[in-house]
């Protein structure tokens, strides 16, 4: 199969969808790998690194036109949806729930669009989202600590305090992969950390692995409102795979927070979990609303592309090989975990949660693939 890797054009996105090591594995399996010139530079992978393992370096136009399986990191932007064509396979993070317009453009393309973030196991894990959740969670505490500095618009408080001066209070909303990693780094920096989550079982598990060093609170509207009143940093780490993130913090709640406190919305890719959230970029990452500093960068792991690109390829490569070796139809039907990743097939939305979020009819993947067979 012809596998293509393109340069990301989303603002401040420096990741690339495949490392040279990944390209080597694909070439060794008999596939042709085409990499857009300069695609890996943001992650410190030179064109020569890809050539050395058998990949072909070529133009943007050729990669988009000739690739049967196109690998990206982020959703298609600008003219990219129009470059997709019927019979092509797109494998990337899509986050379509807040993007009905993009969904419609993908449907019109005729391409099979598989989203990393909705590849999901029977027990609810999202293996292709996990490493980026780890990166984003750890960055959330790091960036939150930075923007608490007075010169950057924050309250002027050190996350870990010093002897005789109490540390900052950090509230993490959501105890999943992002929340755990955010709490872990905030703890390491010496903060007073509270995790708020709806699941008692998850809180019990986190209490065990974090050795009781965190305060755990069951999430209700009242408990959340009480927690953020005196918080210095609030990290939103709410995830419903494929769906819009619930707006768990309202504008009225935000008004009760201390002036120049900071919120970091890691759920912004799925629409955000603060009522006042809107997507920002690494170039212009923060804004103030209701006297609270908001950090809502929609591609947080792009700030550390060397780490992120390697971590991403580690988990996506087995699925890439499966699609390339078997063909998309057999790969999606034989592996129910991968099949859940299919968001758009033959012009139909084939993930029920995504369909509900964007207001499109839901078509089971087997039915949509049947249509592909009759094209």
Evaluate the radius of gyration.
21 Å
CATH architecture assignment of the largest domain: 3-Layer(aba) Sandwich
Structural class of the helix and strand makeup? alpha/beta
CATH homologous superfamily descriptor of the largest domain: NAD(P)-binding Rossmann-like Domain
Strand content: 15-25%
DSSP helix fraction:
25-40%
- The spatial strand order of the largest sheet comes to 3-2-1-4-5-6-14-15
Please tell me the total number of domains: 2
> Which CATH top level class of the largest domain fits?
Alpha Beta
Under CATH, the topology of the largest domain can be stated as: Rossmann fold
H/E element sequence? EHEHEHEHEHEHEHEHEHEHEEEHHHEEHH
Kindly report how far apart the N and C termini lie. 20 Å
Rounded mean pLDDT score: 95
What is the strand tally?
15
Which outline best applies?
globular
């Amino acid at each position: 199969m012809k596998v293509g890797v393109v340069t990301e054009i989303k603002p401040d996105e420096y990741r690339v969808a495949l490392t040279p090591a990944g390209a080597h594995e694909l070439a060794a399996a008999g596939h042709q790998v085409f990499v857009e010139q300069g695609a890996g530079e943001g992650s410190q992978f030179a064109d020569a690194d890809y050539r050395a393992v058998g990949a072909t370096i070529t133009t943007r136009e050729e990669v988009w036109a000739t690739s049967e399986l196109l690998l990206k990191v982020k959703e298609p932007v600008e003219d990219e949806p129009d470059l997709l064509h019927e019979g092509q396979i797109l494998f990337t993070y899509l986050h379509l729930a807040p993007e009905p317009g993009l969904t419609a453009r993908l449907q019109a393309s005729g391409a099979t669009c598989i989203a990393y973030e909705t590849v999901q196991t029977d027990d609810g894990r999202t293996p292709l989202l996990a490493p980026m959740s780890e990166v984003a969670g750890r960055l959330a505490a790091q960036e939150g600590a930075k923007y608490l500095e007075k010169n950057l618009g924050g309250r002027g408080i050190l996350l870990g305090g010093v002897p005789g001066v109490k540390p900052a209070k950090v509230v993490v909303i959501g105890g999943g992969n992002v929340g755990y990693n955010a709490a872990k780094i905030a703890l390491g920096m010496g903060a007073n950390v509270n995790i708020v989550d709806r699941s008692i079982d998850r809180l019990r598990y986190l209490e065990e692995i974090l050795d009781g060093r965190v305060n755990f609170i069951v999430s209700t509207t009242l408990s959340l409102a009480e927690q953020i009143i005196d918080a210095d940093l609030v990290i939103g780490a709410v995830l419903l795979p494929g769906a819009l993130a619930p707006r768990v913090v309202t504008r009225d709640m935000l008004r009760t927070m201390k002036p120049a406190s900071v919120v970091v919305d890691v759920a912004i890719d799925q629409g955000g979990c603060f009522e006042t959230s809107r997507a920002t970029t690494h170039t212009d990452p923060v804004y103030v609303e209701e006297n609270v500093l908001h950090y809502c960068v929609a591609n947080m792991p792009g700030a550390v592309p060397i780490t992120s690109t390697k971590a991403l390829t580690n988990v996506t490569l087995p699925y890439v090989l499966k699609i390339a070796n078997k063909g998309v139809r057999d790969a999606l039907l034989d592996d129910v975990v991968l099949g859940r990743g299919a968001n758009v097939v033959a012009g139909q939305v084939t993930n029920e949660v995504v369909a509900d979020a964007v207001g499109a009819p839901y078509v089971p993947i087997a039915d949509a693939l049947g249509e592909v067979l009759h094209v």
